[in-house]
User: Fold these one by one.
Assistant:
Number 1:
Amino acid sequence: MDASTSVETHQDPHAHAAEHEHHELGFWRKYIFSTDHKVIGIQYGITGLLFLLLGFSLMMLMRWQLAYPGQALPVIGKWLPHIFGAGTMPDGKMTPDFYNSLGAMHGTIMIFLGVVPLAFAAFGNFVVPLQIGAPDMTFPKVNMASYWALFVGGSIMLTSFFVPGGAAKSGWTSYVPLAAFSDAGPGHNPVFNGQTLWLIGFIFLITSSLLGAVNFITTIIQLRAKGLTWMRLPFFVWSQFVTAFLLLLAFPPLEAAIIMQLMDRVAHTSFFLPAGLVVNGAPVSISGGGSPLLWQHLFWFLGHPEVYVLILPAFGIVAEILANNSRKPLWGYKSLVFSVLVIGFLSFIVWAHHMWMTGMGTAVSAFFQTTTLLISIPSVIILSAFFISLWGGSIRFTVPMLFATAFLPMFGIGGLTGIPLAFNSADLYLHDTYYVIAHFHYIVAPGTIFGLFAGVYYWFPKATGRKMNDFWGKVHFWPTLICMNVIFLPMFLQGMAGMHRRWYDGGQGWNVSNEHTIWGLTGFQWNAPISCMAKK
């Protein structure tokens, strides 16, 4: 026996045991303020799904008003004033201001509190470290902070429903000068009003996304397993990687713009307010010199990359499921990777196609029309690669596969119907009509959300150790597929008939759309069957 062995033999066993003593984390540290990427992913997932349910519920109230304008909402209509305030639905009948609040909060909640947390943060946190062989995210505490920033932002948004005057009424885009004067002036608290709380809550949501984006980028670059080179990464990881860069580069300008709009409201600056404004018949006393169009540029500089923040994670999820259930590798892996990289780049130079109505010059219009058409090319390549991946495969139509395959034509319809909007001449007619709602919702609802449902069914056994019921999964899938098409397809027809997207009772759009009948119904009469299918 040598000296080293002798020393080891006579070590204190209690000291050795102390070195390996494991302290079990308590409930709060393990499940609430966790730094484990899997737990945080589940937190994001549950939170995102709950907000999606809330956003859907707000939409259902709007659909009732559009289907039966001026009529009392049965059963729950008499209770809603006790929840949202007496001025929202007197006698169960929706007021115009409350309709505007529902529209603004539906869009904000569904995109920034529903789809983004679920598509990017939930699936990304749970799956990415596992796929690249990382023990956790690079910055676990920053990961925890990003979730709680989202939670605080969402809580502030919800609080805005219960302050005097109700939630924000200036749309999910918060266009000025309307947003600068909404819920402002005598009778309104300078901070605790719907529009100001919307801005404050949004600051927290953006901060959450920025923290998450930095964490994802660092993790994918630094913590990949040895030998896992860039072109060996799963396509899902590539989609999350590009999405993180979109958030990191597009959100800071909007956060700066939100702070400037907040200053316009509470500190009486004029970042976005021009001189000579008249509100309620009286000139506004402000320094002036600001530009309302500056807000639109800063908002849409985020707004269009945001569309790909919603869709790229869904691409990644669908790719995983198609390869698994066709039992063959993805076709054209490198073309898929370069396509998402090109989408990421082009998404930053197409934003002004949301602003054709602002009267930009022909040279600028031509540039943005060209880039908008170009960005459709990598999307078509990705969709084509997915279809080709199915060719010759031994396909299993599991519940995740049903949602994944349905995603392909639904996203295709959304993409193709966006091409007319790329041309300013066509957009002058279609802008702010139901055609735009149909196009965007085909991208996000039967598009992105089908991808998210596929991901939930696909990775639920990995997260919980239990498999979801196939029968009820198919009961979920088929009515959803049918109803979503019945809801959104007629909206293309309504839009081409002249139905405006924002008027709570149809307004002049009622008269315009009633001049044309489509399959025996006028544009506005289509609202009743659409709302009925939404209820189902």
Note: The two ends are 80 Å apart (CA to CA).
Number 2:
Amino acid sequence: MASIIRVKRSTGVAAPSSLNFGELGLTVGVGTVTNRGGRLFAGDNSGNPQLVGGKFYTDMMSIAPGLVQGQDNPATPDNGFIPVLDTRSPGNPGGGGNVNRLPRVDQWSVDNLTLDGNTIYSNNNDGDIKFVTNGTGEVNIDDDTFLSFGAGKDAKIEYDENGTDKIRVTGADWVYENLNVEINGGTTFFDNVGISSNVISTKSGGGNTLFIDPYPDGLSNEGTVIVKGDLQVDGTTTTVNSNNVTVNDSIFNIGDVTSNRTVMATVVVGVSTITLDSVVGINTGDQIAATGIDASGIGTVSAYNTSTKVVTYTGTSNAEISATSQVVITHGFDTNTDRGISFNYNTSSGTGNNKTGFFGYNDSAGEGSSAIARAWTYIPDATVTNSVVSGTRGFLDIKGIYYQTGDYSTHGVVFFDANGLQTSTNDPSTAANTLTSNQILTAVTEIVITLDGTASFEAGSQVTQVGNSAAYGVVKTTTSVANTVTLIGVVGTFNNTGDLLDDGNNTARNPTSVSTTYTNKPIWTNTLDGGTF
């Protein structure tokens, strides 16, 4: 009786050419995927060898359940191995419910992607990871699930369906390189323009000019910016480069004694200082008004620092004032500046003929006149320095002037007093009250006669003309051997043919020209001339 049964066998790597029905055949050569080594064959009922197993397959299945990472075929690595799923542990995929024995391996790779733990890797050098759907399919992240960035989850995006029902972006600042959009803290910057809460500002280091262009495709003066609600300008200079400016206000107010400032740092309870965005125009004695600095005796400016923009006020705050809050400054300081409208114009051509005019309230006493302080002033060629205007006063072209009731006398005559102020004489009906006088107001004409030679005249002498009895006048100023003579109180017209008579004496000089200085000018005199006969 035999003790060893041997099947058909070969040390090679080729399959047997035939096997009887039920007969076994074994190859023990090193098997690979391209040969038939390490295989076990069985003959079918047609005598054909059928592959039923062998070391080639048992080597591939020799790895413990669930292990993939770091494993390899123990006999022939190039033959690979077959992972065996481990079902010994539970799991809860996507939170959809616990699976008591969840089949799994410790790592899995497909083509250039590797899934390990909670991480998907691309395993080719610099390989991308893409999510590509079929047709209109979408890559979807479920409600209330964060898409986070960075090893420490430094930035996150979430659709907050259960809360705000909005996309929420939290964590680190975002920078859109190609779009020049940056989300920095509470401010979103578009290039150099930032938006934070209800504030639009320039980015730090991005310049100090902010443009609003409603029509970039047009010229610099095209398009319309519409401001709904009030417009507050807190700067020191407002320039309007337009041809037409209209306002609906019936009274245009300038030189306002109130202004607004922005709080730059939180003011806590019990302090007497506040940091503002600007202290330009603030003086001691001004009043600060804000919630927390509004009680009687609190908020009067006692000091300010132009470098730190810290303002010290009387008393202490009784409530917290948050940064970006607005405070109202009521100015209580005489700036000794003028108030009014200045305007620019050109008298001919070229920049050398540019002028500045001014009309309005003059804070100081009249320069070049005796006008009192705070008088209305018009200066056509003005110099404006720190809101103080100087220059020669201009003319007034109007139809008439009304005086305040009580500042004039009916039918009185307007005259200038010693300070140059126009004043009214008494009413003619009260003339009886003027009992004595050595002067009378009369209207006179003044001329200048140019002679055909030189002559001398005494002031007060009467000048007539030979053959022209209708013309006469009185010498205004003594002349000596001069070729001109000035006459006042002139009646008639001197001609260029007759000699002049000086108190009846022929001067043997006749006029070559006569020019009129003024006609019928009102003048005070103590002499009444009845004329000649």
Note: The mean pLDDT is 88.
Number 3:
Amino acid sequence: MSDPNPTPNKASGCSIFFTLTAVIGLVITFLFVQKFLQPEKPESATKMVDDTRLHKISTYEDENTLYSKQIISFHEDKNSSIETTMESIVLKYQGNSKIKQSIEP
């Protein structure tokens, strides 16, 4: 008959060795594949790219300054013409009120 107190199956040293070997192999393979699948690091900007960027920035700043001056000039002209028109209207009304005062007894 069979043994009345069966002992649990114990792992042999050989199966543990092969399991560890397989795990280590899979980890190394995973790291190796991951290294090749990562994108390359972008190269740092060269001096020519930096110079081009600085040139574009200075050109933009010059154009922006010129545009701002044109806007300010336009608004100053419009405001001065509106101011002149308003002053002439006020003078016209003041003249009309003096005439009405002189006509009325």
Note: Helices lie at 13-37, 47-103.
Number 4:
Amino acid sequence: MTTPPAIHLAIIQPSGYVHSLGFLDQARYFRHMFRRLGARVTLAKNRLREDAVNIVFGAHLGFPSDWQQRHACVFVNLEQLGDGGAAVSADYLALLRRSAVVDYDAANVPAYAADPGSVPIVSFGYAAYLDRPTLPLEDRPIDLLFFGSTNPRRNAFIARVEAAGFNVSAFDHAIYGAERDHFIGQAKAVLNCHFYESNRFEQARAFHCLSLGTPVISERTPTTDPSAAFEDSVLWLPEQVEDWFRQHFAKPSFHAEARRALEAFRTPDAAHDPLPAYARMLAFAQRTGQEHASARTTTAVGPWRPRAIHLGAGNDYRPTWLNIDADPQSHADFCADFSGALTLPFEATTQFGSPVLIEAGSVEIIQATHALERGADLRALMGNALDVLRDDGILSITVAHQKSLAAWQDPATRRALNEQSFTAFTTEFWRTGWFAHRFDMAQAQWTDAAGQPAKEADAAGLRIVLKKVSTTPRERTLARTMQADFGGIDDDVVADMPAPPMPMPDARPAVAATTAPSPLAVAPTPTPPQRANPYGLPASLLALLLDA
């Protein structure tokens, strides 16, 4: 491997699922190790890149299968699998069987791989980026800290420790990141005990605590098989847990032993620094990316043609949807206001490296989450939605109700809406300048602050479902009647019209002279009237006869 591949770390988080934040510890360590190897690394939540190899954490929480068609993926399994392990879904095991996978424990691999040797094993070590000044162990106010999920097995183990006379502190709600790390730094030690009967060592938790400078005291059973980096870095409990705590914990001998264990974990030798394993994994990721690129070339996969668009994505990024939001903090696929000028077909590349093609009438559904209140031009936004939706396509709208205090809660709000705000796009579509298509109101529902159905008096929001339909001849006639341009009419120009056979006459009418006579002009001598001469006499003779 000469040039490392671009690496993208993706953490899967179902909407509002706080425990996905736990994967940040492992993802940051992977980033640290890959950077040490010279790779360019990015990190995101629920977002994959087409221009990188995606290292995916938390896929057991749900992973869209069609994502693998467009993205090169390596899945990191951090679940304890097999007998006595986690009860993961059949879909997750099937995903692991057909995909490139890395694992933290070789004992997990037989649960999904026919050839265990095909799965790279990586462990965790000292994370230098977590090094910071710490309180002396003797001065820390928390005796023992436990964090993580609980079950009867863990609760029973913690009760044994507390029976020895020491308090085990735990969080009363989920807490991760720097907020949790603050309390880890306040503890004399973190207590680790097994959740599953498989009893595999929870190194994905322990490495972070040790790197922060807090000792780890852990249960150990005959089936607990830690990697070499933890053998001399963790304080392993004997079977008689209560006696150990009574005799050793919080005594000067404990503090000295704990400091030696922390120093051992920082030792930059082969046993404690897993960099070679990450180099092998990086090469594995590069091969995965190359194989995926070759497969895409063979199947001639073109640009992504999204069938679903999420407007106002905000914090609710939807995998497999095209997410659009004008707020840069949303990290949407496109940071844009959907009410801007849109020329179809539209071709661009998302900020995550995915080429996108949107054609007229190609989208099946648009979810607009508070996008209508914030868009600069509501008429243009609705027109763009109408243009990209197929016939019978759905525009699902969530807005705050005009009467609700929440209508102006967001500083980005430009307008408040109510039930009548949509007539210009449905029954009175001609007001918007539309002609061939309009929206039909398929559903209208008042909702409370939690988004649940409510009565009008209690409404905080509106949920509107519109369906794109073709206008009827009667509706188009109405549009011609009401619109200033007759709804648009043809120019009636005939191609290759022949030239006229003869010059056209001058169509200008004759204009009589209107010049007024000059007051000094001499009047013309009047011409005498002609006399009748039926006999043809000479004029002189005729004059004599008539004058006689």
Note: Residues 275-299 form the longest helix (25 residues).
